[in-house]
Design brief:
Nucleotidyltransferase, domain 5; 3 domains; 14 strands; elongated; 5-stranded mixed beta sheet; 444 residues; binds zinc ion; 4-stranded mixed beta sheet
Length: 444
């Protein structure tokens, strides 16, 4: 049967088993490992091995040990020819010959074959970790290995955690971080939303860490635990307009310039515009938007960038506003939103700051719609941090993209029971670990 077997599975990014005997050679290559037989049993393949042990002494009293028995333990191995493979290891249980020794029996383990307590072989566990890191679900990988979801998940958590801990360079290459909130649903007896904070490297577009909290104290404590060299290097901190995250930066990274993410500012202006439109609509017509109402018809066009409208689009918007917005309140809110977009398109920081200052004053005027005055107050409160965008030109945008990745993981990883599953999988997927490090990871 031996000649008929082949495997072409990636282990890590570097270890590709491709020719018929490589999968066996990979084991034979391990000193002291002997292949006893290889059998096809229906659709499955079983590989039986043993590890030669030579002379072993008791770990406690150093007296010579004797073999007590040979328990046979089965592990899930890499599939061969798309057939699930079982690796059966004829182990040695040893016994100390010294009657006075408190050590009675122990099993000979070998982390190169399988970590203690792991039901996957080491090579299968590393392969599974890599697969999940590429975005496959634990169930898909478990199906391919023909084993239980928990078996794969446990291995991915163990090896994923070890990889992230060993890959120290991963988080040490940035001068700009972003803090962003994500909510995820805890599955349990009650469904409830729970909040996490994503710490991102917004220069290299990767997740640094995910914390099971959005509280100021917890996030600041995490920052404080980081090495001084890491903290000193952070020159910019991106954030949404969250007072908690602003406080984290002020207290734990006081030298970092805080930069409000443009996406959140524009989104806020769009929400203000939409609120004005809905209010005017109700005032004009006495009901919420219906399909034929002019303002309802304009709702999407209003949120588009002005430059995206061609001439007929602009004319259409103008005529819808003439019909539905007699006091030009919606038009005013639209201009404010567009002016804010101009602010972000401006390159000169001094000019941009003057623009925002003027816009703020404009929004805060008493005759402005209340929704726009409220926007003006937010701009006033975050003024310097909004302007800082023109110093750093960084945004939480990459973090947003990472959060979308996380949302995808949450969707495909239906059944997240706890935060640790979520964290490891998101970091493997969006944290850009160096997969080559996995090859040298030892889990005993
Ligand atoms: Zn002993």
């Amino acid at each position: 049967m031996l000649h008929a077997l082949s495997v072409s599975k990636k282990l890590g990014n570097t270890f590709v088993l491709s020719n018929p005997t490589e999968i066996l050679q990979a084991l034979v290559g391990l000193k002291d490992v002997k292949i006893l037989r290889l059998e096809r049993r229906g659709p499955d393949v079983e590989l039986v091995i043993e590890r030669e042990i030579g002379v072993v002494v008791c770990p406690r009293c150093r007296e010579r040990a004797r073999v007590k028995d040979r328990p046979v333990v089965s592990y899930v191995d890499l599939p061969v020819y798309a057939s699930p493979m079982t690796l059966t290891w004829k182990k040695h249980r040893l016994r100390c010959v010294n009657v006075d020794c408190p050590v009675t029996t122990w099993m000979v383990e070998d982390h190169r074959i399988a970590a203690k307590g792991c039901l996957l072989t080491t090579r299968a566990a590393k392969w599974a970790t890599n697969q999940v890191g590429q975005g496959r679900t634990v169930s898909e990988v478990a199906d391919e290995l023909n084993c239980d979801w928990h078996t794969v998940n446990d291995a991915v958590l163990t090896y994923g955690e070890a990889l992230l801990a060993a890959d120290k360079k991963r988080r040490n290459q940035t001068t700009a971080i972003g803090l962003d909130e994500t909510n995820f649903v805890k599955l349990g007896t009650h469904l409830h939303a729970s909040y996490a904070t994503t710490v991102a490297d917004v220069q290299n577009h990767q997740i640094i860490e995910i914390l099971p909290t959005r509280r100021y104290e917890d996030v600041a404590a995490w920052v404080n635990r980081q090495p001084a060299s890491w903290k000193e290097r952070i020159a910019y901190g991106a954030l949404d307009m969250s007072p908690a995250y602003a406080a984290v930066y002020s207290v734990a990274l006081p030298q970092a310039a805080q930069v409000v993410d443009p996406y959140h500012v524009i989104a806020l202006a769009n929400r203000s515009l939409d609120a004005v439109r809905r209010r005017v609509q109700v005032e004009q017509l006495g009901h919420r938007g219906r399909r034929d109402d002019p303002l309802y018809r304009a709702r999407r066009v209003l949120l588009l960038g002005e430059e995206k409208l061609d001439e007929s689009g602009s004319r259409r918007l103008q005529s819808l506003l003439e019909l539905g917005d007699p006091n030009a309140e919606v038009a005013l809110a639209y201009r404010v939103k567009e002016r804010l977009r101009d602010f972000y398109r401006t390159f000169d920081p001094v000019h941009a700051r003057a623009m925002l200052d003027e816009l703020k004053g404009h929004c805060l005027r008493r005759e402005m719609p209340p929704e726009i005055q409220k926007l003006g107050r937010t701009i006033r409160d975050w003024f310097d941090k909004i302007c800082n965008f023109h110093l750093a030109r960084i945004s939480n945008g990459p973090t947003e993209a990472l959060n979308n990745l996380i949302k995808r993981i949450k969707r495909i990883g239906f059944g997240f029971r706890n935060f640790q599953n979520y964290r490891i999988r998101a970091l493997l997927y969006a944290g850009k670990p160096n997969w080559r490090v996995l090859d040298s990871i030892v889990v005993r």
